[in-house]
Amino acid sequence: MSEELTTLFQQGYRYAFSLTHNPASAEDLLQDAWLSMLKINAPIVKSYLLKTIRNHFLNKNRRERLVPIIAIDETLDDHILIDNEADRSQLIANQDMLNKALSQLRTIEREVIFLFYIEEYSTMEITELTSLSKGQVCSLIHRSRDKLKNILEVEAEFNAPKAAK
Amino acid sequence: MTKHTSTNSGLKKQNLKTHTVEFYEEQTLATDQLERLLAMSTLSEETKQNNFQSWFDSFTRLPIRAAATIALLILPFIFIQMNLNSGNINIVPQEIALNHNKHLTLEYKSEDYSELNNLMTKLDFQLIASNNPTLSHLKPLGARYCSIQGNLAAQIRLIDNTGKLYTLYQTPMTQSLLKSDFATQSVENLLISQWQEQDLFFGLASPL
User: Fold this and answer.
1) How high is the ipTM of this complex?
2) Distance between CA atoms of A60 and B19, rounded to whole angstroms?
3) Share above pLDDT 90 across residues of chain B, in percent, rounded to a whole number
4) Which of A103, A132, B140, B200 stands 20 to 30 A from A162 (CA)?
């Protein structure tokens, strides 16, 4: 049981980190969420934990409404996420560059990237967690990945003279 | 143009997904924090089991006919009491101890409660200097935001004249906090005391 809980806590922590991009804040968020789940005898499942973490994050950061800035006519379908250029191309990067690049994304952009890439959530699962429409989720994933890729490419180019040595 | 300070160490050429997955897999919960969360889970489970055992033992000692009658009458009340008791009594002191032991960086530095109150604009209550004589020899160093039972709270770091650090929490009193056992308790090598002043809940973590 403790092994299962350990895995759950790590998953919850990484999700909290995707929202806060700060280790201490992520720990706080996970702890608050877990305590509130214990208090009400909530089901100990990942989906419930992630939802609780999200709700606590929104409560603590009322200005951070996690609203995507997407024009209505820009909502996309699932097919745009398959075999995407951002995923095919090879990028030169390290952990430090990823850290800086992710810090430049908006919270909701980091969140969808995390859920899509790391948790491998389907667009439907992301829709259920975030209450965004499927079109908005697809568009967000598509734009966020392109944005992240562009940031990393610029960073790699900037560091290229060092890398060439 | 200022050069970035990124080093070349760990540079890899791979696709975006692999980079992102590797990055997040490196983000792991600190071992001490993980252990505390596991301990909280165990404590909550034991509290629930003890409540059920006490209820069951008291029930089986009675004669069957009388027990059946009494069960019909009091079962709803026992069930309500179990729900009131489960998880709440020891969770708050655990939370206070856990937050104290994390020794997180102060967000605001000041030795004055009024100044801290002015600085902490996110609080929806007024920070006050407690009249509890226990705190009379303690000086504030600063504060940060935290939460108690999911409610926004102020966490104030205090110091005594020997250099020992204490943590004081203030948050509006709630029905849930009122159910907490206000008896002073020893948790994780700390003395945890709780009380109410005006409409605020106070929690103090003191080193033993």
Assistant:
1) 0.88
2) 30
3) 24
4) A103
